[in-house]
Design brief:
41% of the residues lie in helices and 22% in strands. The chain has a four-stranded antiparallel β-sheet with strand order 1-2-3-4, with helices on one face. The longest helix has 25 residues.
Length: 246
């Protein structure tokens, strides 16, 4: 095991960077060259998109058309690679905090505020003492590597969501939600259906302020309440939750 003083970094590594910056441009270049080669045939297909563009490419002399298709495809691959690089999640874990970096944005989560860490599907999730989500970040990082990194620094890693059975499928008008939460879930469902990722994330934050934790299964929403949001006498607060300080 690494020394506790040395943070552990988990990311996609050199292989992921090679795919983003070499593999995608190369694949794009190959696809562009093929499209240029068969531009005339594609232009005759009644269902093909941008038929006029393929007609223009088909009228170009062979060397120029092939080179142009290759260059445009490579450029498209570079754009996709840049988008993928900006969306990479880098997780750096030490004994006191974890740093989550995606593109130019980063945030720290303190160990002392964290009650549980786990992977939910492709999401890395950290829960606080009120069972609220301190962070939920989607990535393709290996669950095994994440587990080793957190366990190796004494974090409370769990093999799965400890509250998975508490979630309920959301349907409009379902009782039990705090005031205003149903309207937010309706708006979030519309954003999910329209694949508006930014709005989906913003509404998750708004729901968290009401004590509602949301997880998605495709375009279906499931919800549960934090401990302090559960109706009843003297709800437990985050300060009352025992946090393992190993």
């Amino acid at each position: 095991m690494d020394g506790y003083g040395v943070p552990t970094r988990v990311d996609g590594g050199a292989a992921e960077l090679a795919v983003l910056w070499v593999g995608l441009p190369a694949a794009g270049a190959g696809a562009g060259a093929l499209l240029a080669r068969f531009a005339g045939w594609i232009a005759e297909l009644p269902w093909a998109p941008v038929q006029q563009l393929f007609e223009v490419v088909d009228r170009l002399p062979d060397p120029q058309a092939g080179i142009g298709g290759l260059a445009v495809g490579a450029l498209g691959g570079l754009v996709l690679g840049a988008m993928g690089a900006a969306d990479r999640l880098v997780v750096t874990v030490d004994v006191e905090r974890v740093r989550l970096r995606r593109g130019g944005a980063e945030r720290d989560v303190e160990r002392r505020a964290t009650w549980a860490v786990f992977v939910d599907g492709k999401d890395l999730v950290l829960l606080g003492g009120d069972d609220e989500e301190l962070a939920r970040e989607r990535s393709d990082l290996s669950a095994g590597r994440l587990s080793d990194a957190f366990r190796g620094r004494g974090w409370p890693w769990t093999d799965g969501d400890p509250h998975r059975d508490a979630y309920r499928r959301w349907v409009p008008g379902l009782p039990g939600l705090p005031s205003g939460a149903d309207a937010l879930l309706r708006a979030r469902q519309r954003a999910l259906d329209r694949e508006k990722g930014g709005e989906v994330r913003e509404l998750r934050v708004e729901l968290a302020r009401l004590g509602v934790v949301v997880r998605d299964d495709g375009k279906r929403q499931y919800w549960r309440l934090t401990r302090s949001a559960i109706p009843g006498p003297d709800p437990a607060t985050s300060g009352e939750r025992e946090v393992d300080e190993r």
